[in-house]
Specification:
Strand content: 15-25%
CATH architecture: Alpha-Beta Barrel
Mean pLDDT: 96
Number of strands: 13
Oligomer: single chain
Radius of gyration: 17 Å
Low-confidence stretches: none
Number of helices: 8
Helix content: 25-40%
């Protein structure tokens, strides 16, 4: 049975261009996490989605704020929690995960470089895995392959043939952009070759989830759960029910 991971998109944090209020960020994060839990998701992932344009490596203020927010959220729900620090700051994500005892982190570019709106993002699997060991962090690492919003210098075949060398715990496959449906033929191809857990990370809806979960172990859902910019519990329930059939 596929797992459903709901996304808590944080409003802009201190230091980002559209920041307004940290109290509002915390309140919204707690509200969204509670709604996701009420709707039946299996886990949540917290990400600094409002910090556009994203930095390749975030400032100390982001690490501090996301740690505080994650701790507040953990007090209010009983679900496993993941951390994603955009654009690709896995060292920051691991640091937060260690402090809050998060269950997993997401890394958009763990291995192989890519060209993104934020610039060229290099692979740092060696640094990330050694840092994880150094701080004794138990969080699993979910790694994107051919991640959205990027031009890739490696083929999907290159990614899946070299995934095991990265020491990732699970792989994430997405569409081209946020909210874009994954290519089903590509998903089938990856599922056929890789043995590790496979997660679909974009474009999942109540209408397509049943065909997607045939070929993966879980889905990450953010955009679909929102109605007029706010997470809607009925949308959460609808998708979860379809995924669990």
């Amino acid at each position: 049975m596929a797992e459903v991971i709901g996304v808590v998109h944080l409003k802009p944090l201190p230091g980002s261009p559209n920041y307004t209020s940290l109290e509002e960020v915390v309140e919204d994060a707690i509200r969204d996490a509670k709604i996701l839990e009420e709707g039946g998701v299996d886990a949540i992932i917290i990400e600094n989605y409002g910090d556009k344009p994203f930095k390749k490596e975030v400032g100390k203020e982001v690490v501090a704020c996301m740690t505080a927010i994650a701790l507040e959220v953990k007090r209010e729900i009983s679900l496993p929690i993941g951390i994603n620090v955009l654009r690709n700051d896995a060292i920051a994500a691991l640091s937060i995960a260690k402090a809050v005892k998060a269950d997993f982190i997401r890394v958009n570019q763990l291995f192989f470089p890519s060209i993104t709106p934020e610039g060229i993002i290099d692979s740092k699997a060696d640094e990330i895995m050694r840092f994880k060991r150094f701080i004794d962090c138990n969080a699993m690492i979910f790694a994107d392959i051919s991640v959205k919003h990027a031009i890739h210098l490696a083929s999907i075949e290159d990614y899946i043939l070299n995934a095991e060398r990265s020491l990732a715990d699970a792989l994430i496959l997405t569409g081209k952009t946020t909210g874009a449906e994954v290519n089903l033929n590509e998903l089938k191809y990856v599922r056929k070759i890789v043995d590790m857990p496979l997660i679909v990370g974009s474009g999942v809806t109540a209408e397509n989830v049943s065909k997607i979960v045939e070929f993966c172990d879980g889905v990450i859902v953010g955009t679909y759960f929102k109605r007029r910019g706010r997470i809607d519990v009925e949308r959460v329930r609808k998708l979860v029910n379809e995924a669990k059939r």
